[in-house]
Input
Amino acid sequence: MKTILITGAAGGIGSHLRRELAGRYKLRLSDVRPVKPLAKGESFLRADITRLGDLLRATKGVDAVVHLGGYSVEGRWEDIHPANIVGCYNAFEAARRNGVKRFLFASSNHAVGFYRRDEVIDHRVLVRPDSRYGVAKAFGEALGRLYADKYGMQVFCMRIGNVNPTPLDKRRLSIWISPRDMAQLVEIGIEHPEIRFEIVYGVSDNARSWYDNANALRLGYAPRDDSEIYAEPLLARERPGDPRAETLQGGAFVVEESIPNPASLAPARRRAAKTSRKAKRAVTKKKAAKR
Ligand code: 15L
Output
């Protein structure tokens, strides 16, 4: 039985994969957070992906890495950089140094989130990240390409939509992937004999999909689920959001800004500084009048 390292195993996707892949592989689970309770065939190794040494320990003796670890939404560069740039580099590099050939990278729909919703895109389009998070995913794909070309690693990049038992909203009707379809895709990434470097979309067979997932189908992916059965009640609940977010595939990620724009703060700061200068001048005047 193959031993698979899953980084970021305490997260949502990790939990679904643990359940779906149970009995199929020995799972070495790593995360900074504890993963408990462990099922049969699972072991836990605490690893901080920002530390190469931790990942060198975690990748020793495994047959494949499923790298889910990192920051999973848009965030400040100070958070994205260590977790998703340095952490991703460490994961690839540790696997390479330990001779682990097979590497599955959890990329994201946000690597291409600036494409419009009325476009159908495939695995060959140029990246169009919608966020710092999306940029980091594009970085991971590029790093994967380098490690495949230069070091002969077998790299499988999954541009994952949203893994959930059911889709959450209108946008997710197009990008949803059921846990069992996700597990099937991961299994293809681990088992397919001819993988060198591949990009596939991690989505179910959704009627409203905006992806041409021919590359995944070519590799044998046969998704069993379609979000359409959840559409009616979900669309009835949907309220209109930001027009840009509604037009572009990345949704809220294209407008999400967790760092306040310094330019927009400038007028307020200028006003505050002007008021304080005025106040100082008034005090000076008063003092001068007293003398
Ligand atoms: C992602 O890449 C995130 O990891 C996940 O948290 C969701 O936000 C998902 O995309 C999405 O687009 O819904």
About this structure: The first strand starts at residue 3 and ends at 7. The pocket of D-galactaro-1,5-lactone is lined by residues 72-73, 108-110, 162, 172 (CB under 6 Å).
